[in-house]
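lol so apparently i was supposed to do this last week
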Amino acid sequence: MSFVIPGEAICVEEEALPSGYVYSDGRGYLRSHVIGVAVLNKYKKTASVRPLVKRGLTLKQGVIVEGLISSVYEDVAVVKIYQADNIKINATGLLHISQISSEYVADIQDYIRPSDTIKARVLNNMPPYLLTIKEPQLGVIHAYCSSCGEELYLTSTGVLTCNNCGRIEKRKVAVGGYLLVVS
Ligand SMILES: [Zn+2]
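anyway here it is w/ zinc ion bound
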């Protein structure tokens, strides 16, 4: 076990599979999403991080958060916020269709879908937290294939594809922030 910070390498890909709060950087290393204690499970061959939780944390306007899209309605998505400023938190956010893109959004599902992970900015100081992903560097940072459920990879030409079934999907991807990049 060792203390890690976001982006820090935990081990090489051959050693373990990425589990909680750990991602593969696409260049051979497993890295941590959060501040916490890295745990290598030699029996299951998984690498995970036990995040440090800061209790009683309230979010402030302007803070960048990460969250999981838990449900998507016609004009709003509910976001389970799990991280702010790289500290683990637990809060609920709402992402309105008007805060998704600077272009006209006809169908919200072309931009975000349930189980996507997003990076967003908080617009207010009180729950429920209102979020925006309009800025180029904000948006989806991890997503799964709507057809087969495998992870989607971002190609060098900016296309989200499924390596398993070949499906191509549309999202509002965070520029420079997507976690699984085809090298
Ligand atoms: Zn697929």
